[in-house]
Each structure stands twice: as structure tokens, then as C-alpha cells.
Amino acid sequence: MISAIWAEDENHLIGNKGTLPWHLPEDLKHFKNLTLGKPIVMGRVTYEGMGKRALPGRQTIVLTQNKNYNPENDQVIVMQTRAEVLAYAETIDELMIIGGQRIFDLFMDVTDKVYLTIIHHQFDGDTWMSASHLSGFEQVSAVKHQKNEKNPYDFSFIEYQRLVAAN
Ligand SMILES: NC(=O)c1ccc[n+]([C@@H]2O[C@H](COP(=O)([O-])OP(=O)(O)OC[C@H]3O[C@@H](n4cnc5c(N)ncnc54)[C@H](OP(=O)(O)O)[C@@H]3O)[C@@H](O)[C@H]2O)c1
Fold first, then answer.
1. Who contacts 85 (Cβ-Cβ below 8 Å, separation ≥6)?
2. Arch. (CATH architecture) of 2-162
3. What is this structure's pTM?
4. What pLDDT shows up at residue 132?
């Protein structure tokens, strides 16, 4: 199974200058809970924005077209094609696509499940998701959380699964 997980603001913004536009510890915890123990796939830009770190407890896979790419981290697997990632996904239970925008685009048509965080705020940034990405999906749960001392914005955790075509 292939799942995608991302956080976006009210305008579908997801990134700014290679990193996240916000700091929301509760969403980072949610991301960790959902990804722990599962392989994660990210684009080279996101990987570099994270300082070339492998996230603990998750096999980190970085996608780049650069055949000579050096991840400078021996815990990271580098892949060059979508086909390579899809072949890998066949060998495991759940592969987590964690971004950024170009990587979500690349795998959206084979994604079975989406874990979305909406941050109820509008930020400045340079990278947006397409609103149409969720058109083939149905919402299966949504939980809204109020801002608090450590988390300065209201946010919602929403899960979607791909609609199964009726015969
Ligand atoms: N809010 C969230 O949940 C979230 C999650 C993740 C990331 N982000 C943000 O999103 C932004 C980055 O997104 P992005 O779209 O600019 O970059 P990205 O998706 O992280 O990485 C794009 C790179 O992936 C590689 N790539 C793309 N398609 C490929 C293909 N078909 N085959 C092989 N390699 C391929 C290319 O690397 P090469 O150029 O090396 O070939 C490309 O430059 C950052 O600001 C990041 O913080 C937000």
C-alpha cells in the first residue's frame, strides 16, 4: 500500500524556501506516530531542506534524477525513478510518500491513502499542493484541534482513502 502524508495551510501552501512555513510541534508528533517503522520517500529538495538527515526508525529513501547524488548519509537509500520506488513498495506493507510537491504529484495516481493536516491559517511561501489531488478520495475521518500554548494555530487531522470505482 502507498500512503501520502502532508500538512497544508488554508491556501494549500506546503513549503517555503525548502522548509516548512510553520512550526507546529503537535503535527510533527502526529507525523512521527504515522510514519514510525515505515519506509519514507522524499524528494531531493525536501531531503536537503531537512539537512540531509535520516529520520530515526524509518528507512529513508531520497529520489533524485542525479545518478551521482551523494546523500552524505549512509542510512539513506537513493533511488532514481518512480518505477524503482514502486517495485520497492511491492515488497513492504505501507510506503509513506512524504513530499515535497513534485514527489506527491509523481505518486498521487498510485496513492491509496492520504493523511492530511490542515493548518487553519494563511502563511507566506513558495510551494503549493493542487486542490484537485483529493478528487479521487473520500474523507474517512477528521479531528479538529484548538491552538494551545505550544501550537499557535488551530489544525485538523484528516484521513482520506481512494474511492473504489463502482462496477
Ligand atoms: N508541508 C508538508 O507536509 C511538506 C512535506 C514535504 C515537503 N514540503 C516542502 O516542499 C518543498 C519542496 O518541494 P519540491 O516540490 O520543491 O521538491 P521535492 O518534491 O522535495 O523534490 C524535488 C526533486 O525530486 C527529484 N525528482 C522529482 N521527480 C523525479 C522523478 N520523476 N525521478 C527522479 N527524481 C525526481 C528531483 O531531484 P533532482 O533535482 O536532484 O533530480 C527534484 O528536483 C519544501 O519547501 C519542503 O519543506 C512540505
1. 41, 61, 63, 79, 95, 107
2. 3-Layer(aba) Sandwich (3.40)
3. 0.97
4. 86
